[in-house]
Write a structure and sequence with these properties.
Shape: globular
Amino acid sequence: VQLVESGGGLVQAGGSLRLSCAASGFIFNDYVIGWFRQAPGKEREFVAAISASGGRTRYAESVKGRFTISRDNAKNTVYLQMNSLKPEDTAVYYCAAKAGLAVPLLTTGYNYWGQGTQVAVSS
């Protein structure tokens, strides 16, 4: 199982980035994918998640209306479109995967993790 994040970088406040999570080594269509982030000195926190079919999404309150999660099962890839970025969005962003129907918000609900991609938002 492999999850590889990409698309991070440095952006000014108000800007946009699109993160990608490319998956391999498992039946992608059977897995929920979540995005989490971890800022220096803080715990890893939930950002967004999408069900295996793509029909259900969940978001943290802090990103609702600004971030959009989507998936392309033909490409084994999940995306996180991040708009109206704020300095407090600065963190390492991780994608994670779990099998089944439930779409959990906790890190313990996911079995597989990527290595992360850095997002930095300047004020």
